Amino acid sequence: MIKSIELINFRLFDEVSFSFNSNNIYFYGDNGTGKSSILEAISIASKLHSNRTSDLEVVIKHNSNYARIVIYCENKLEIIISKDSKRLFIDNKEIKKFSLFVGHLKTVLFCKEDSLIINGTPKERRDFLNIEISQIDREYLETLSIYKKLLVQRNYLLKNLNLESDYFSLKVIGKELLKYAQIIVDKRISFLKDIETLLEKEYLIEGKKIKLVYIPSCDINTLNMYLVDDPSKDVQSGFTNFGPHRDDFKFTLNENDIRYVFSSGEQKMLLFALKISLFKLIIDDNKILLADDIMSDLDEKRRNIVLKSLKENNIIMNGQFDIEDSNYEKIKL
C-alpha cells in the first residue's frame, strides 16, 4: 500500500502531497488537473520509466531545475530528476545502481499508450518487454544493462575499425554479446509463455486462444556467425544488425496477427487482459494496479467487466467524473 505521495516541480505541480487511508484510490476532476501526472509519477518511482515520454527531463516543471518524487510505501522511495542526472534514494540512502532501485514498488499501469504494445513499432514492444521483465527479474535488468554497454562498444569499433587488434577486440566483444543475448532471449520467451498461460484463463478474451509469438532477428547459430565468425555485414554497415535489440513479438489468433483480425474494441479488451495477467504474474502482496482513465473509451458492457475485474486488487485509478463506489477513497483535483 502507498501511504503518501509528494511531488515537487513535477509536470504542472509546484508542490503537492496526498495521504491515503485505503488500498483503493480514485482521483477525479477536469482535464488538465494533473490526474495522469500522479499515476505517471508512481510508475516512474516503480520502473524509472514514464509511459508518456522517453526523456524524463520532460517531467520537470517549466522554469524549474529539477523534479522530485517521494513515495512512502514499505520504504521511502525518492527520485530527483534534473537536466543531466537522476538521483535515487531508498530510506534516505542514495542508490547508485538502477537495478537496486527498480522493483521495490511493483506496479502495472493501464493507459492509452498500451495500444502501442500491439500497433506500435518493434522498439516499443521491446521496451514493454524490457520494462516489465526488469521489474520482476533483477538478473534480466542487470544482463540487459551489460548487453547495452557491450553493444555501444561494438558499434563504436565497427565505425572505427583500422587495426588488426580492433578486429580481435570485435571478436572478443562479440562472444560476450552473444552470451548475454542468449540470456535475454531465453528470459523474454519464458516471460511471454507465462503471460500466454495466464491469458488463457482470462474470460475477457471470450474463449479466443491468443498466442504470443517471439520474433528473433535471427536464430542463435546465425547470431554467432554475425557476432563472432563473420562480422563482415556489420563491418560494412557500421553497426550491429542482429540481436535481441532488433527482436520483436506479436499476438496471434489461429496464426493470424491480431492487428488485422481484431477490432479496436477487441484489442482494448485484450490489452486489459494482458495487464491483468501481468499483474497476476507479479508475486508481491503490495503490488498496485494503476489505471489512467481507462473507462472513457469503453461501452457499458466492457466497462462493467473491467470494474468487476479490478475490485479485488490494490488500485489507484482516475477519471473525469465521480463514481458511485464506496470501495474507493475519492480525491477531487
Topology:
Blueprint: E1 4-10, E2 13-19, E3 24-28, H1 35-47, E4 66-72, E5 76-82, E6 86-90, E7 93-95, E8 107-110, H2 116-119, H3 122-136, H4 138-159, H5 164-200, E9 210-215, H6 220-229, H7 232-237, E10 248-253, E11 256-257, H8 264-281, E12 288-292, H9 300-310, E13 315-319, E14 329-332
Parallel strand pairs: 3-13, 3-14, 8-12, 12-13
Antiparallel strand pairs: 1-2, 1-4, 4-5, 5-6, 6-7, 9-10, 10-11
Helix pairs in contact: 3-4, 4-5, 5-6, 5-8
Task: Give a short overview.
The protein has 333 residues and is an alpha/beta fold.
What would you note in describing this structure?
This protein is an alpha/beta fold. The chain folds into two domains: 156 residues, Rossmann fold (3-Layer(aba) Sandwich), CATH 3.40.50.300; 170 residues, RecF/RecN/SMC, N-terminal domain (Glutathione S-transferase Yfyf (Class Pi), Chain A, domain 2, Up-down Bundle). The protein contains nine helices and 14 strands. The strands form three sheets. A six-stranded antiparallel sheet has the order 2-1-4-5-6-7, with helices on one face. It has a five-stranded parallel sheet with strand order 8-12-13-3-14, sandwiched between helices. The chain has a three-stranded antiparallel sheet with strand order 9-10-11. A hairpin with a 3-residue loop joins strand 5 and strand 6. Helix 3 crosses helix 4 and helix 4 packs antiparallel against helix 5.
Features:
333 residues; alpha/beta; Rossmann fold; Glutathione S-transferase Yfyf (Class Pi), Chain A, domain 2; 2 domains; six-stranded antiparallel sheet; five-stranded parallel sheet; 41% helix; globular
